[in-house]
Amino acid sequence: MENFVVISGCSGGGKSTLLDALRRRGHPVVPEPGRRIVAEEMRSDGHALPWVDLAAFAERALAMALGDRRDMQTAEGWVFFDRGLVDAAAALEHATGRPVLAELGMAHRYHRSVFLTPPWPEIYQSDGERQHDFASAAAEYDRLLKAYNALGYRTLLLPKCSVEERADFILTHLPT
């Protein structure tokens, strides 16, 4: 959908904080599927965790991303997604080797401009829901950059600046 805008990129690069700033400005936002899945799985002692079963985690993220798109179809104005279907498909392909990215990525499009948070070691933090190290996060970033470019998206790297400046950057790079 042309009003669905993805903010993707390096884990720990400030996406969730940026989405909060966009929400405060009145835009609908969709939280990251991965964080929601990890929270659910940890509450229920589940195994669809990226550090336990990456394929099961990615399958759930894919289903959740499709549901998020469906749920937001009637939203007006820009809708910002903290990651999305392409991220989930890239993770599933990485985990299983199954070529799902091209088919799913072309069938369920977002706005042509995708905003990526680059690796930023100064703000990266692991926690109970983000257990991978910075090197793994940077490798994931490289896979996502290649995936979005391969699908024909225009990838825009977010500058390493304040959250409000990043929100301004996004809004000035979208058509009015």
From TrEMBL:
<dbReference type="Pfam" id="PF13521">
    <property type="entry name" value="AAA_28"/>
</dbReference>
<dbReference type="InterPro" id="IPR038727">
    <property type="entry name" value="NadR/Ttd14_AAA_dom"/>
</dbReference>
<protein>
    <submittedName>
        <fullName>ATPase</fullName>
    </submittedName>
</protein>
<dbReference type="InterPro" id="IPR027417">
    <property type="entry name" value="P-loop_NTPase"/>
</dbReference>
<feature type="domain" description="NadR/Ttd14 AAA">
    <location>
        <begin position="5"/>
        <end position="166"/>
    </location>
</feature>
